[in-house]
C-alpha cells in the first residue's frame, strides 16, 4: 500500500509530507521510502496560529477558520506529495494535523485537539484519510503521546545494545527499547519563543545566536527547577506549558532575585545559549534516567527532527551525553527532517489494517488501540485485509 504521511509539529513552521510503500511480510512491516516534501505555512497562517495558541485567548470562530485553513494547507501538501513522490498513485493519506491544545491535569491527559479538517484532504486528493490519531489513546487512559513510540520500537528492534530514539521538534521526546517513552521537555519551544521576542525571527537559524552567547549557569539552574522534569514517565507536555509567557515569567523572577547581580549583563544571546543548553541537559538527564549501568543504559541515541539542523544544540548534546554516541536517523534510512511524517504513514497503514498503533508501556494507556478516524475518499474506504497480524519489526528497503 502506498501511503502519504503528513505532519506538522509543535514548531508549526511547515507541513512535512513523506510517501512510502508499505506491506506486511510475516512478522515484518516493510517500508520503502519514496521521498519527502515540505510546505511552509504562509506567514499569515503561521501568525494566526501563534496568536491563537495558549496562553492566548481565542474564539470558536477563529478555531473554525484555522481548522479550515490548516486543512487546506495539508491538502495542498498532500496533492504535491502525490504528484511529485508517487507519480499520482497513492492509496491512503495519514494526517496528524496541527496540535493546538493538549489538555493535561496533574499529570493526566484529559483531551487533545489537532486541527486541519481531513475532509479538505480527501476532497483535494480523492483518497481516504486517517486523522485524529491521539484521542483514542487518551480515551484508554494514555497520554496520547509520543505516538511515534510504537514505530520507534519496531524500527529499533534487533539493533545491538540499547538504542534510544530521540526527536527534537518544538518539544523533545524519546523512546527506549523497553517501551519507555515520554516528552523530555522543550527542544525548540523556548528558544524559538525567545528569538521571536528578541528579534522577530522564527528561530535561531544554524544556532548563530546560541553560538555567540554564554551559558548562564544560575539562570540554567532556575530553569531546571521546573517540576515537569522530575515527574516520572509516562508523561507529555507541550506549548501549553513551555511558551513565551512562561519564559518571560522565569526571566522576570530571575531578574528580581537579590542574589543574582549578574543579570544586569545577561544578553539576548546569553539567554538563547542558556535555553539551548537547557534542551541538551534535560534530554541527557532523561537518557540517563533510563538506567545508570547494566543492560538498561543507552548505548546510542538516534536523533531526528528540526533540532538536528542546529549545530550548537547538537554539540551541546554530545557534551551532555558524555560518550554515548549520537547518530542521525538518516544513517538508518529515515530522514531526520521527516521521520515523524513517515511514522504517521506507518500508523495510518496500521489503522486501515485494523492493527493497534500504540504500545501501552509508552503512553500509559490501559491497552493498545487502533488509532484515528477515517474520512472516505471518492471511492469510499480502503480495503482492510482481514486477519493481519501485528508486526514485530519495521524493515526499511
Automatic annotation (TrEMBL):
Q: Name one GO molecular function term.
A: phosphotransferase activity, alcohol group as acceptor
Query: What is the E.C. number?
Result: 2.7.1.170
Q: For ATP, which residues are the binding ones?
A: 9-16
Keywords, sorted A to Z? ATP-binding, Carbohydrate metabolism, Kinase, Nucleotide-binding, Transferase
- A UniProt-annotated Pfam family: AnmK
The organism sits in which domain of life?
Bacteria
Q: Does the keyword Transmembrane helix apply?
A: no
Please give the pathway this protein is involved in: Cell wall biogenesis; peptidoglycan recycling; Amino-sugar metabolism; 1,6-anhydro-N-acetylmuramate degradation
GO terms, biological process: 1,6-anhydro-N-acetyl-beta-muramic acid catabolic process; amino sugar metabolic process; peptidoglycan turnover
Reaction equations catalysed: 1,6-anhydro-N-acetyl-beta-muramate + ATP + H2O = N-acetyl-D-muramate 6-phosphate + ADP + H(+)
Record keywords: Protein biosynthesis included? no
What does this protein's UniProt record list under function? Catalyzes the specific phosphorylation of 1,6-anhydro-N-acetylmuramic acid (anhMurNAc) with the simultaneous cleavage of the 1,6-anhydro ring, generating MurNAc-6-P. Is required for the utilization of anhMurNAc either imported from the medium or derived from its own cell wall murein, and thus plays a role in cell wall recycling.
In the record, the note on similarity to other proteins reads: Belongs to the anhydro-N-acetylmuramic acid kinase family.
Name of the featured protein: Anhydro-N-acetylmuramic acid kinase
Source organism per UniProt: Streptomyces dioscori
**High-level lineage:** Bacteria, Bacillati, Actinomycetota, Actinomycetes, Kitasatosporales
**Gene from which this protein is expressed:** anmK
